[in-house]
Amino acid sequence: MLLFGMPVLWSEDPFARAEYFDDYVDKGARILVVSAHPDDESLAGPLLAYACLQKGNPCHIAVFTRGGGGTCGLLRGCKPDLATVRTQEMKAAARRYRASLDLAHFSDSSLKVTKYTREAIRALWEAEGDPKGWLRGVIERFQPDLLITLDPHHGFTGHVEHQLASLLVNEVLLPRAGYLPDHSISRSFTS
Ligand SMILES: [Zn+2]
Fold it and tell me: Which CATH number fits the domain that encloses residue 118?
């Protein structure tokens, strides 16, 4: 996972001395999780349960796709379709974390379709809309102090859409991208 701490420029930075995740949580950090699919947030489940539920930090989850490219694992099947079921599951999970939610509509490509490399999926998403613009809007609305996303190199599980979601976060937040000067990264943590 990657954690980005974001400096607050308009006032004294309350997180200037924050060293660990707990320090951000204790100071009331607004926490944003950015992922590719409904259920990816479960990879950070213990962090979210602690911060959003036990400590009551404001939390928001942003997901690029509705998960229609996966496989239905329910014995009763996924009616009317997998994306609808996973969207409902994602909404229920967000409620359990007491987190607000943004779900975009970018395509979730089946892992069985091997032609979908990471850059092919990026091209597909950019043909469908503006994934970085969507993410920028989420960040501007929620104003996070801490952002949690997947690792851009292996995507936690090797899934190329996980990698792409993280790369888009990096491209939007890193100063060289030229966006969101009030949300430049003060530090990043990798685990
Ligand atoms: Zn996933």
Answer: 3.40.50.10320
